[in-house]
C-alpha cells in the first residue's frame, strides 16, 4: 500500500524558515516524480513544486520561487520542502503527493497526483 | 499563465440525480485536465485524468469529457458518499506545472 506521511509543520514567525519532510513507503520512490500542494484554511488547492526522479530538475509556482526548495533523498525514500522567508500567505496545510504519468520528447502524458499524504499544517504568524 | 474557472461554485442535488460541473481554461490545454474529489478534512483523490480517463478503482458513475478549453465532469447518480468539493486541474508540458480550479462544493438536498 502506498503511504506518504508528512511532518515538520509548525507555527513560525514571518520571515522565518521551516523544513517539511515526507516519508514514502509501499512503492519504488526513486521511480516517481514527487510534488508539494498546499491548501490555505478554508480555501482551494495550490500546486507548489515538483521534482523529477533524479532530483536535478525542479519546478515551482511563481509565488514561492527563490524562497522554497524542493529536494529528495531516494536512499531514504524521503521528500523535503525547505521554506525560507515565510509570509502570512504561506499559511496552509501542505500535502506531498506522488506524480503518476510520464514525459518523453518534450510531451507529457497522464500526469496526475495519484497518492497523497494526510498533510501538515504550517502557520505563519507573529 | 493559464487560468481555470469552474461552475457552479456550489450545488445541492438529490440522491440519484445527475450532477454536472464545468471547467474552463483561459487557453487551449488539449486534454491535459484532471478532476479531484476532496472530502472534508481529507486529502484530495484523483478521479479522472486526461479529461476522460477513469482512475483505477473509481466508480463508473464518475465521468469526464472535453478538450481544448471546455471540460465537463459528471456524476451519473449522486450518492451520499459523493458529498465533497471537486477540483479540476490542468497541467503544462515542459516545464511541467499545474493549476487547480477554484472548486465546486457538492451537497445533498
Integer average pLDDT of chain B: 96
Q: Radius of gyration of chain B in whole Å, from Cα?
A: 13 Å
Global structural class of chain A: mainly beta
What structural category arises from helix and sheet content of chain B?
mainly beta
Q: Characterize the biggest β-sheet of chain B.
A: 7 strands, mixed
Notes on the structure:
The complex is a heterodimer of chains A (126) and B (109). Chain A is built from no helices and 11 strands. Chain A is an all-beta fold and 126 residues long. In chain A, a hairpin with a 6-residue loop joins strand 5 and strand 6 (58-60). By secondary structure, chain B is mostly beta strands. Chain B has no helices and 11 strands. Chain B has strands at residues 4-7, 10-13, 19-25, 33-38, 45-49, 53-54, 62-67, 70-75, 84-91, 98-100, 104-108. In chain B, the strands form 2 sheets. In chain B, strands 2, 4, 5, 6, 9, 10 and 11 form a 7-stranded mixed beta sheet that branches. The radius of gyration of chain B is 13 Å and the shape is globular. At the A-B interface, strand 4, strand 5, strand 9 and strand 10 of A face strand 4, strand 5, strand 9 and strand 10 of B.
Amino acid at each position: 500500500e502506498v503511504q506518504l506521511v508528512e511532518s515538520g509543520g509548525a507555527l513560525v514567525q514571518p520571515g522565518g524558515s521551516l523544513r517539511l519532510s515526507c516519508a514514502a513507503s509501499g512503492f519504488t520512490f526513486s521511480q516517481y516524480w514527487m510534488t508539494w500542494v498546499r491548501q490555505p484554511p478554508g480555501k482551494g488547492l495550490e500546486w507548489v513544486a515538483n521534482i523529477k526522479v533524479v532530483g536535478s530538475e525542479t519546478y515551482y509556482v511563481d509565488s514561492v520561487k527563490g524562497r522554497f526548495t524542493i529536494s529528495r533523498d531516494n536512499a531514504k525514500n524521503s521528500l523535503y520542502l525547505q521554506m525560507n522567508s515565510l509570509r502570512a500567505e504561506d499559511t496552509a496545510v501542505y500535502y506531498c503527493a506522488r506524480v503518476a504519468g510520464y514525459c518523453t520528447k518534450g510531451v507529457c502524458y497522464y500526469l496526475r497526483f495519484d497518492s497523497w499524504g494526510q498533510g501538515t499544517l504550517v502557520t505563519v504568524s507573529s | 499563465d493559464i487560468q481555470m474557472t469552474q461552475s457552479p461554485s456550489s450545488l445541492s442535488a438529490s440522491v440519484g440525480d445527475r450532477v454536472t460541473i464545468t471547467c474552463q481554461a483561459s487557453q487551449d490545454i488539449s486534454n491535459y485536465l484532471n478532476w479531484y474529489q476532496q472530502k472534508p478534512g481529507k486529502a484530495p483523490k484523483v478521479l479522472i485524468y486526461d479529461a476522460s480517463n477513469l482512475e483505477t478503482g473509481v466508480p463508473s458513475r464518475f465521468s469526464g469529457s472535453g478538450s481544448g478549453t471546455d471540460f465537463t465532469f459528471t456524476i451519473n447518480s449522486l450518492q451520499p458518499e459523493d458529498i465533497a468539493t471537486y477540483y479540476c486541474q490542468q497541467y503544462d508540458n515542459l516545464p511541467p506545472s499545474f493549476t487547480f480550479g477554484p472548486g465546486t462544493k457538492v451537497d445533498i438536498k
